[in-house]
Design goal:
The protein is of the alpha+beta class and 200 residues long. The chain has helices spanning 3-9, 36-47, 91-127, 135-161, 169-198, and strands spanning 11-19, 22-30, 55-58, 61-62, 81-85. The chain has 2 domains: 9-85, Roll (Ubiquitin-like (UB roll)); 91-198, Methane Monooxygenase Hydroxylase, Chain G, domain 1, CATH 1.20.58. Helix 3 packs parallel to helix 5 (169-198). The longest helix has 37 residues, at 91-127.
Length: 200
Amino acid sequence: MTNIDIKSRFYLLQLEVAHGSDRYDIHIHMERPPLVLDLMQEIENKARVPIMNQQLLYRGTRLHQTPDKPLEGFGLFNGNRIILVGEKLAGLEDEHFRRLLSIEKNAEIINDVIGVVCRDFENLKKSQQPRNQCTQLLQDLKAHSERCRSDLKTFQSLANDLKIDSSELDAYRKKDQVVRLIRDRLDILSSIISAISSYQ
């Protein structure tokens, strides 16, 4: 694989985000052009300023107003500085938010594994091999799926057990978002396990 091949497959962007006197190095590595929303999610993880509270300024442009626009559309390149305006969370709400960010990150790692399982199962179906010739692969895919489901249920319990007061609006919203993400992935896993089990 040449450097051109690598460059065409991955988007690498390093930015500096200034938030008052704080500075954050943000690194974005993706297989598609990163959007403003991708940047906002990275900032949420690093600076713990919830997406809803973020205002991002770059050369007089308010990036946060167009979250679905690719960053390259603003002429951003490595080393550019973005100004972040928005309040960090404090006290117990910050602690809850940090915990939820950790659970969300783990759920996203499992989501990547789910993607690999789906891809491998689709490739197996396309190969049209008789089931008796691919029993071990099917067992492995099912075992991976069941492990993912078990881990997600653990993360779901951890998120549900967090006692967040309704006055902690940002942490409350984040909890709802994380629980929905996990529930959605559990539904996908149920479908995958069922499909693998019934594959002829």
